Amino acid sequence: MCSDPACPADHDHGPAHADAGAIRIRGARQNNLKNLSLDIPHHELVVVTGVSGSGKSSLVFDTLYAEGQRRYVETFSPYARQFLDRMDKPQVDRIEGVPPAIAIDQTNPVRTSRSTVGTMTELADHFKLLYARAARLHCRGCGKPVSRDTPATIVARLAELAAAAGDPRLVVSFPVTVPASFGEDEIAGLLAQQGYTRIQARDGAVLHVVQDRFRLAGAEHARVMEALETALRAGHGRITVHALGEGEEQRWKFSSGLHCAECDIAYSDPTPSLFSFNSPIGACETCKGFGRVIGVDFSLVVPDESKSIDDGAVKIWQSPSFKECQDDLLKMARRNGVATDIAVRDLPPEHREWLLEGDPKWKNWDASWPRYWYGVRHFFDWLESKAYKMHIRVLLSRYRSYTECPACHGARLKPDALLWRLWCREQEGVRREALPSNRQRTSPEEGLLTPHASRLPQLAIHELLALPIDDIAPFVAALDLPAPLDEATDLLLGEIKGRLRYLQEVGLGYLTLDRQSRTLSGGEVQRINLTTALGTSLVNTLFVLDEPSIGLHPRDIGRILGVMERLRDAGNSLVVVEHDPQLMLAADRLLDIGPGPGERGGEIVAYGPPIQIANDPGSLTGAYLSGRKRVDVRRRPRPVAADAPRLTLRGARQHNLQGVDLAIPLQRLVGITGVSGSGKSTLIQDVLYPALAKHFGQSAEPPGAFDGLTGLDAIKGVVMVDQSPIGKSARSNPVSYVGAWDAIRKLFANLPESKERGYTPGTFSFNSGTGRCPTCTGSGFEHVEMQFLSDVYLRCPDCDGKRYRPEILALSWQGKGVADVLEMTVSEALGFFAGQKAVQAALAPLADVGLEYLRLGQPVPTLSGGEAQRLKLAGYLAEAAQLAGKKAKKGATGEEPGLLFLFDEPTTGLHFEDVATLLSAFEKLLDAGHSLVVIEHNLDVIAAADWLVDLGPEGGAGGGLIVAEGTPAQVIATPASHTGKALADYAAQLATLQAAPLVAEPAARYRAVADNAITIRHARHHNLKNVSLDIPRDKFTVITGLSGSGKSTLAFDIVFGEGQRRYLESLNAYARQFAQPSARPDVDAIFGIPPTVAIEQRVSRGGRKSTVGTLTEIQPFLRLMYVKLGTQFCPDCDVPVTPQSFEAIVAQIMRDCVGQSVELLAPLIVNRKGLYTDLAKWARGKGFEQLRVDGDYLPTKKWPRLDRYKEHSIELPVGRVKVGIDTETLLREYVQAALDHGKGVLKVLPLGAPGAALITLSTLRACPECGTSFPEPDPRLFSYNAKHGWCPDCYGTGLKIAGKVDNPDDLDLGELDSEATETCPSCHGARLNPVARAVRFRDLGLHELASLPVGKVSGFFEGLKLERREADIGRDLIAEIRGRLDFLQQVGLGYLALDRAAPTLSGGEAQRIRLAAQLGSNLTGVCYILDEPTIGLHPRDNRLLLDTLEALRARGNTLLVVEHDEDTIRRADHVIDIGPGAGVRGGRIVAEGLLADLMAAPESATGRCFAHPLFHPLAPRRAVSDDHPALAVAGATLHNLKNVTARVPLARLTVVTGVSGSGKSTFARDVLHASLVAAAPVGCASLAGAEQIGRVLEVDQTPIGKTPRSCPATYIGFWDTIRKLFAETNEAKLRGWTASRFSFNTGAGRCPVCEGQGRITIEMNFLPDVKLPCEACGGARFNPETLSVQWKGKSVAEVLNMAVEDAVDFFAAHPSIAHPLRLLQDVGLGYLTLGQPSPTLSGGEAQRIKLVSELAKVRGRAGESPSGPGRPLPPEKHTLYVLDEPTVGLHMADVEKLIQVLHRLAGAGHTVMVIEHDLDLMAEADWIIDLGPEGGDGGGEIVAEGPPEAVVQVARSHTGRILGEFLATRRRDGVPG
Question: Rounded CA gap, 1413 and 1094, in Å?
Answer without folding.
Answer: 12
